[in-house]
Amino acid sequence: KISASTWKYDKAEIDANKDGTADTPVPAGYLEACETDNLITFKVDGTGTIDEGANKCDPSDPQSVGFSWTFKNNETILNFPTAIITGVDGDVIIKSLTETSMVLQKAVTLPAPFSLDVNVILTLKH
């Protein structure tokens, strides 16, 4: 399922009390438009590609970059050595994975001025 086709950003939310349910959208400014238009492709060999989409965060960045990923813990955790989107790297919990949606959860500390320890719930779609 994960490698069936390219994934796109759908939404990112905060689970402030860490009960597994989203409480509010991520604060404005946490994710930039240049990140949310990226296209993420997972390949069956444990590699992938992030395409910058129409809006690059830095015009000098390449249009696409590779990344590696692995499943862990009976495919309930995805591991990314490098971030696929702000704050989403290392071990990331797979909350759900269907033919059209992937919901990931990651414990993060939001940067100043927010400075909160929360779970970010990231939803990607085909």
Characteristics:
126 residues; mainly beta; Lipocalin; 10-stranded antiparallel sheet; 1 helix; 52% strand; globular
Q: What is the number of strand segments? A: 10
Mean pLDDT: 92
Report the top-level CATH class: Mainly Beta
CATH topology: Lipocalin
What is the overall shape? globular
Strand content: over 45%
How is the biggest beta sheet arranged? 10 strands, antiparallel
| Helix-strand category | mainly beta
Could you say what the CATH architecture is? Beta Barrel
Q: Tell me the helix content.
A: under 10%
How are the elements arranged and paired?
Layout: E1 7-15, E2 24-25, H1 33-36, E3 39-42, E4 47-51, E5 64-68, E6 70-72, E7 77-85, E8 88-97, E9 101-109, E10 117-125
Antiparallel strand pairs: 1-2, 1-3, 1-10, 3-4, 4-5, 6-7, 7-8, 8-9, 9-10
